[in-house]
């Protein structure tokens, strides 16, 4: 019986020495699916649940912001923890923190408890995401990093599409049921990570047992590939949460005069477009290059997001959001692969810094975009997001051309190394 080949796997005609996706990459994709299914279940219910405590819209926004703020604050510590204890341990602990805090949210007795628990969940989320991306980049050869990131993000996207439908069903049982379901899916994800992920070894140790010197963090920070990736992550955090996520639902209701259900349908179609584009985008990043992927995708996203407030009807808006989704497939894979190219043996701290840029954009973006929409206009809010995308494309011109060396990563385990997951 002939097995189906993964669209993210090796190209046809692959030679015996050509690198392929590691087992850890596939495991991380499965973990991402379970995490995002649960997250997708909670997101539609969370504002209504917070409202049930007798608070206003400001307090609802504070609960959402607390999660992102604590992710941002915790990320620098996550990099050091990963270098000390290994990716698998920090990933499992982070998922455990989110699982416990989410379950406790379902039995919170008052609003302050709810706010603190969501903040604690943000700390666990930072630990998980930084550890997972560090492990993915460390165990993947440079020539297939784009496909590895694409497979991982595919797990998030598929889970994110399934989650809201389940959330609506669970909400008919009770407003707290989605939080317990989320805790359950996280428990499954953490167990999968502990059982199936390879134990980490000390960074930079080769087959001879001799420790290779770690790449200094300051060298990574000076690398234009890393700087371009961080700017890309910041502009995505700003535009995806501050412009697209926060303003498009309002635009549908107030400008297009449509029901809020239109937003969910348009976002779902855009998510399908992004998922279908992940495989070709990942292959493009690995075969053509990170630089052209970043320049082209961010320019397309700039034009698209600037045009969104001028959409005359929901059909045109859905088309624009779908084009943005296709660009997002490139925008998600190319910067992450660039971080792996630049960071090398620098450990978890570069990935933590990379993650912080996205979180900072997600914190500041909604505030600035909302202020511009209220005081100037909706087009002005969207235009600022587009300008950040253009700035990313222009800075990416400084990146070196070509592809990284098609070499395999350091062996994830050597007989003489000491395991870090204790």
UniProtKB/TrEMBL annotation:
Which residue spans adopt a coiled-coil conformation according to this UniProt entry? none
- CDD domains (alphabetical): MFS_MdtG_SLC18_like
Classification via PROSITE patterns? MFS
Q: What species is given as this protein's source?
A: Cryobacterium lactosi
Q: Which Pfam families match?
A: MFS_1
Residue ranges annotated for the Major facilitator superfamily (MFS) profile domain, each copy included: 24-404
Its domain of life?
Bacteria
Q: Which GO terms describe its cellular component?
A: plasma membrane
Q: Which UniProt keywords apply?
A: Membrane, Transmembrane, Transmembrane helix, Transport
This protein is called MFS transporter
Name the membrane topology term: Multi-pass membrane protein
The upper taxonomy is:
Bacteria, Bacillati, Actinomycetota, Actinomycetes, Micrococcales
């Amino acid at each position: 019986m002939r097995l189906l080949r993964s669209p993210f796997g090796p190209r046809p005609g692959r030679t015996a020495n050509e690198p392929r996706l590691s087992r850890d990459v596939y495991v991380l994709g499965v973990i991402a699916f379970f995490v995002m299914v649960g997250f997708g279940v909670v997101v539609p219910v969370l504002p209504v649940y917070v409202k049930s405590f007798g608070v206003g819209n400001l307090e609802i926004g504070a609960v959402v912001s607390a999660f992102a703020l604590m992710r941002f604050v915790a990320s620098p510590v996550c990099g050091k923890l990963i270098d000390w204890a290994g990716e698998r341990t920090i990933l499992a602990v982070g998922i455990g923190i989110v699982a416990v805090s989410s379950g406790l949210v379902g039995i919170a007795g008052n609003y302050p408890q709810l706010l603190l628990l969501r903040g604690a969940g943000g700390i666990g989320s930072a630990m998980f995401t930084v550890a997972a991306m560090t492990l993915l980049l460390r165990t993947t050869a440079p020539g297939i990093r784009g496909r590895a990131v694409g497979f991982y993000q595919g797990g998030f996207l598929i889970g994110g599409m399934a989650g809201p439908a389940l959330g609506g069903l669970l909400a008919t049982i009770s407003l707290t049921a989605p939080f317990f379901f989320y805790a359950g899916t996280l428990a499954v994800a953490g167990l999968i990570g502990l059982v199936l992920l390879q134990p980490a070894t000390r960074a930079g140790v080769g087959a001879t047992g001799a420790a290779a010197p770690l790449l200094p963090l300051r060298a990574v920070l000076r690398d234009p590939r890393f700087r371009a990736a961080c700017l890309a992550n910041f502009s995505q955090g700003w535009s995806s949460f501050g412009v697209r996520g926060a303003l498009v639902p309002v635009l549908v209701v107030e400008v297009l005069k449509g029901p809020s259900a239109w937003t969910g349908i348009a976002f779902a179609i855009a998510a399908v477009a992004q998922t279908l584009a992940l495989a070709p985008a990942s292959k493009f990043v690995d075969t053509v290059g990170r630089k052209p992927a970043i320049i082209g995708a961010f320019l397309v996203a700039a034009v698209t997001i600037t045009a969104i407030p001028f959409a005359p009807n929901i059909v045109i808006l859905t088309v624009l959001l779908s084009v943005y989704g296709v660009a997002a497939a490139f925008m998600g894979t190319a910067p992450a692969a660039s971080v792996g190219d630049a960071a090398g043996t620098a450990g978890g701290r570069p990935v933590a810094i990379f993650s912080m840029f996205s979180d900072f954009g997600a914190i500041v973006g909604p505030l600035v975009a909302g202020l511009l929409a209220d005081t100037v206009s909706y087009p002005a809010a969207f235009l600022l997001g587009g300008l950040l995308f253009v700035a990313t494309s222009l800075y990416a011109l400084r990146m070196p051309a070509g592809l990284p060396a098609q070499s395999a990563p350091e062996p994830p385990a050597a007989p003489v190394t000491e395991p870090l997951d204790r």
